[in-house]
Amino acid sequence: LYKHQNKKRTLKDILLSPTTEYLMEAHNAISAKIIEEVGFSGIWASGLTISSSLGVRDRNEISWTQVIDAVEYMTDVVDCPILLDVDTGYGDYNSFRRVVKKLCQRNISGCCIEDKIFPKQNSFIGERQELASIAEFTGKIKAGIDHRENEDFVIIARTEALISGYGIDEALRRAEAYYEAGADAILIHSKSSNADEVLEFCNLFTAPCPIVIVPTKYYNTPTNVFEEAGVSTVIWANHSLRASVKAIRETAEIVFKEKSLVSVENKVASLAEIFRLNGEHEMEQIEKRYLQEA
Ligand code: SPV
Ligand code: MG
Is the whole-model pTM more than 0.90? Predict the structure, then answer.
């Protein structure tokens, strides 16, 4: 009851906390629940992994209402905040303000919007992806800020300037403009295999604004380097899906080959664990209260 009032911490708390915080990817309710139970303070609802888990590309092939429907299963089962990847905002400033309104109504804690062109492509494919103009993108940020219905709702502006090969000056110019437009944090994305450009950005971006990073490609950088650079929040962006894909394939291959469950039974989650995760135990309580003997 009154679950929505029980969110442990807001996304704003996480972004503004003095120490570096970590969000981990989830793409459905069961992965969200596991991520929260493990101890993460929040969840990254990834566009890449939600799309991929539904069998489609990270190119806005599912509609934004389908994305929100998918995320609603996640918000239903966790108390920790969920940051939703809304790609480019699914259209212009007008589409984005409606998205923000609906996310607030569905109790999603915040969103991250990127400065590319609809329909987007994933940052790790293609060469020089086109960026939105600063004027257009700051208009979108402002429209989102003006239409949030919950004061704790967070809008993170993500610049793809480094991804698109425009260099550090363009990334800084954009980040400063997005901060001025009201973004609660800046996500600086990079596809470099080392953290040099992201660390340079952290050093030169002096606005009093939290910085968020996604070290998918520069995963070798020790995490304390990000902490020392003052990074607010690190997103581990796709590892739940990648872990489950590998585990499903390995299990299926063994079962297929051996025509038997014997060697996998102790390697997969127990059925009891599945019933625990789907909340089956609560029915005992609820039946006592609502299921009267005739
Ligand atoms: C996602 O997880 O969908 C992201 C991060 O946006 S990335 O895949 O690196 O673009
Ligand atoms: Mg994405």
Answer: yes
pLDDT, tens only, 194-233: 999 999 999 999 999 999 999 999 999 999 999 999 999 9
Residue 120 Cα to ligand 2 midpoint, Å, equals 9
> Cα separation of 71 and 63, whole Å?
13
Q: Are 161 and 191 in contact (CB under 8 A)?
A: no
Which ligand is located closest to the Cα atom of residue 216? 1
Q: Indicate the residue type of 121.
A: Q
ipTM tops the 0.90 cut: yes
**Pairwise CA distance, residues 56 & 36, whole Å:** 26
Among 74, 72, 85, 83, residue whose Cα is nearest residue 33: 74
Provide the CA 73 distance to its chain's centre, in angstroms.
14
Closest CA to 64 of 45, 37, 38, 36: 45
Is 189:112 a contact under the CB 8 Å cutoff?
no
Structure tokens at 136: 């257009």
How much distance in Å is there from the Cα of 47 to the middle of ligand 2?
A: 4
On whether the CB atoms of residues 84 and 95 are closer than 8 A, the answer is: no
